[in-house]
Amino acid sequence: MALLEVDDLSVTFARRGQRAVRAVDGVSFSVDAGEVVGLVGESGCGKSVTSLAIMGLLPKQPGLRVGGRAVFDGTDLLQLDDRSRRDIRGRDIAMIFQDPLSSLNPVLPIGLQVTEVLTRHRGMKGDAAAKEAARLLDRVGIPDPKRRLKEYPHQLSGGMRQRALIAMAVACQPRLLIADEPTTALDVTIQAQILELLKDLVRDSGTALVMITHDLGVVAGMCDSINVLYGGRVVETARRRPLFREPRHPYTVGLLGSVPRLDAGRGERLNPIPGSVRDLLPWPDGCAFAPRCSRRVDACVGEPPQLVLAHDGRSYRCVNPAPVPAPREEEKR
Amino acid sequence: MTDSDILVEVRDLKVHFPIKRGVLFDRTVGHVKAVDGVSLSIGRGRTYGLVGESGCGKSTLGRALLQLTPPTTGEVSFDGVELTTLPPGKLRAMRKRMQMIFQDPMSSLDPRQNVESILTEGLQTHGIGGNRDERRKIIAETLDKVGLPRWALSRYPHEFSGGQRQRIGIARALVLGPELIVADEPVSALDVSIQAQVINLLDELQDNLGLTYLVIAHDLAVVRHISDTVGVMYLGGLVEEAPSDRLYREPLHPYTRALMSAVPVPDPDVEDRRERILLAGDLPSPANPPSGCRFHTRCPWAQPTRCADERPALREVGGSRVACHYAEQIAGGELRPHKVQVEIVRPEGEGEKPGVVSAPTEPGSFV
Amino acid sequence: MTIISGKKREKIDRLAELAAREEERGVSLWQDAFRRLRRNPAAIVGAVILTIFVLVAIVGPFFVPYGPTDTMGIREGVVRVGQGLIPGHSAEHWLGYDHQGRDVFSRMIVGARQTLLVGVVATLIGLAVGVLIGGVAGAAAGLGGRLGRWVDTTLMRIIDMLLAMPGLLLAVSIAALLGPSLTTVMIAVGLVSVPVFARLLRGSMIGQSNSDYVLAATSLGVRKSKIALAHVLPNSIAPVIVQATLTLATAIIEAAALSYLGLGNPDSAVPEWGVMLADAQPWLGIRPALAIYPAVGIIITALGFTLLGEAMREALDPKLRK
């Protein structure tokens, strides 16, 4: 059975005097124990809202409606009261955010923030907690951990802060880690370090990881299965290799065509997707990608595209998917 | 390349920012060496890509080249004219020949100007287009070039999407008919699918108008895609410069290799197969750069004493220019990488000490 | 594959056309702010209060039932202060008489004009001087290089000196210099608000000077003086305008306070709410209403300006825009 099963999750923000906005519209995916699952999409696709809704971290405001189910290990997270949700958060599910500086408390030393987690969820105190905190910092590759414990977040570099945050997240050996754009604010060489660290942690501890990112390169390197999001819907789900080798949804095809690849030759033109995400939708029900889609047909604008299930756990929401390319020989490097 | 083919030549450019501290009087306690001795030349109609991580000085170099940040020392010659010693009036007149595109299209457009006013400003400043109709014609042509509709003219920046805003920024640069465009992170603030549109647009414009680009970006894949020549910067200096394809095929500098191996490629097969060179630790502070080779504190190939003592100069190695004492030995496999001890690096300037709260200004009152 | 019905297609076409038609004219930031202002209930309440106040102040004096200086109560023998007799409201005199036998209602109406005048002129004085000093300092500090920083430091030290002096002391010294009068009150209240405007504008301008669009204008070759006037100033002025609205409220209260202390118009024949408040003091025991009327007037007006000012602050805040 899956560790986390998100089923038909929807998040609606309604503001007074304005049309309600569906940030997330029927998102379903599942995460098995020890699996790395990617949620990929551009800004406004609903990937972050999805994770915040699962964690119950959406700011409470009038007009916010969360529907559907998010079953973690037999309990529906969306039905829990705040207290039991807080217990699960940090102990069974942990989260890493994009900006490590704003996720850490600036007026408390790192050590105190790590031991706080240990005290709350693992009941550790005093020396034992300090020792464990130092071990955790060492585990995530922070040099001279004993001294770092006394330092404040602003004394550490961005990469080190993100490591400290990861140390706090894995402090209770959670079964699920949700990482929301964990490397977007970092430089490439630091990003590589952090990704390697995350891969290591997942391999060693068997923690499942949900990786939320806009970077197709990042998911290509580490995710077992990938969900591509657009306009609040999962438009394609596939295992890693099939997704990159034969994308079926036109949006996935477009995304892959738009990214300049390091290993492509100079001067190869990119194939961008026309228009922008903000393009006005005269058809609220139809496929959100239809205005920008080159394979659009009449049926796209009528009603929400149904999920099409294909072989080996692959699915997409498209009435006119891209054809499967003829099987290639061993591709050239 | 003959001399007449070179549009921009930068010689030993340095930009040092003073660090000031003091309670009553500001004292200069040191310098941030943002750019520390860079020489490069850009051929007419070519694209030079400058790549490096945050804090390496690539943006400062771009601004110093355009004299938007005054260089500390060094020379910049543009089409044979030395810019660093040019009087302000002449420099302003030169500006129509060299323009800039910015990273954040929102903050680089005045929110209170509509598009027409944004595009007219440069024309008026340089007296291009005698009357209103003529200017309108030039603006309309420019809009066509960047793919913006006519109705954009009466609209304000906040009414556009990120990609369209960047097009407005490009149009503003283009309307003066420049020869050189410095593009500072032109796509990094944009969504992936929009990035490709802008990159293609820049490509097209170069083909049609014969523009010369200096593209500054942190994304090696973007830079390599768009550039003829790529320069890799680390802590204020060029560490390697090579033709785009050659840089990918045969990176010579250890930093280039590490950077190359860190860029994720959207292809699982490539990702699984490639070797990774993980660099230890963070970028050192440019206020207090390491002695000798700036990279030796993180370099897996660093050799005792020489790398720490002597700053390597850029030298020609088989078609590339590289600043490494041991480039040939590393390429030939004579030197093997070793483990590097991580040094802790303190962030500069970001994140003030907590607890310092400045007093808010209260309106004066009698009562 | 389904074919959409003709009706549905028509609907889609119409929607698309509608979306396109909306694209005709651009909405500037000011228009956008005004739109959001209109949707804010606090702004509406403030605007209604102020509209009534301004109407009364401008038109009211032409329609008052009695002359504001007519001591009819004494003349008719209705008001006998010595015996503690100051009649309250009646059918003819809605708010009764004051201690000199004048009609309070008429004095309130005519006083509204004086109060508005003092508030507006004082704020304008403060705004003009403050914007001048702050604008020069901000432009010099943001764009002027080394010389500019020197100019900025000099100007700001002057402002600091002004700020260090207690407002009351400043007003008393100005009054001593010019003699107590309405003009004195306006100048004093105006001068006290100068540092706020100057520092606000300067800070805002320095912030804007570091933005990319200023760099973009520089790279276009636009002159620094033009950049300061055409780009930096217009983008920095919004908080100053908000502050001016809020200052109007405090200016009215402060002017009243100065008048109360006797620094205002010595000829109490010309009614002003602050003067009326001061005049009412000896009679608090007999008829407290004489003090309450002008006090309530001041409070409601100040509230109106404050509500509108705060709503404007919200409307103009770029962070709150979607």
Automatic annotation (TrEMBL), chain A:
Keyword ATP-binding recorded: yes
Pfam families: ABC_tran, oligo_HPY
Sequence ranges assigned to domain ABC transporter in this UniProt record: 4-256
Membrane topology value: Peripheral membrane protein
MF terms in GO: ATP binding
Family per similarity comment: Belongs to the ABC transporter superfamily.
Descriptive protein name: Dipeptide/oligopeptide/nickel ABC transporter ATP-binding protein
Organism: Micromonospora qiuiae
UniProtKB/TrEMBL annotation, chain B:
InterPro entries per record: AAA+_ATPase, ABC_transp_ATP-bind, ABC_transporter-like_ATP-bd, ABC_transporter-like_CS, Oligopep_ABC_C, P-loop_NTPase
Lineage: superkingdom: Bacteria
Native species: Micromonospora qiuiae
Family as reported in the entry's similarity comment: Belongs to the ABC transporter superfamily.
Location of the ABC transporter domain: 10-260
MF-aspect GO terms: ATP binding
CDD domains per UniProt: ABC_NikE_OppD_transporters
Pfam short name (any one): oligo_HPY
Annotated region described as Disordered, given as residue ranges: 346-367
Stored NCBIfam families: oligo_HPY (TIGR01727)
Record-given protein name: Dipeptide/oligopeptide/nickel ABC transporter ATP-binding protein
Keywords carried by this UniProt record: ATP-binding, Nucleotide-binding, Transport
UniProtKB/TrEMBL annotation, chain C:
Chain ranges passing through the membrane: 42-64, 116-143, 155-178, 184-201, 240-263, 291-312
Residues covered by the ABC transmembrane type-1 domain: 112-309
Superkingdom of the source species: Bacteria
Membrane topology: Multi-pass membrane protein
Record bears the keyword Membrane: yes
PROSITE patterns per UniProt: ABC_TM1 (PS50928)
Localization per record: Cell membrane
Keyword match Transport: yes
SUPFAM superfamilies, A to Z: MetI-like
CDD domains associated with the record: TM_PBP2
Gene3D superfamilies listed in its UniProt record: MetI-like
Keyword vocabulary terms for this entry: Cell membrane, Membrane, Transmembrane, Transmembrane helix, Transport
Family the entry assigns: Belongs to the binding-protein-dependent transport system permease family.
Protein name in the entry: ABC transporter permease
Source organism phylogeny: Bacteria, Bacillati, Actinomycetota, Actinomycetes, Micromonosporales
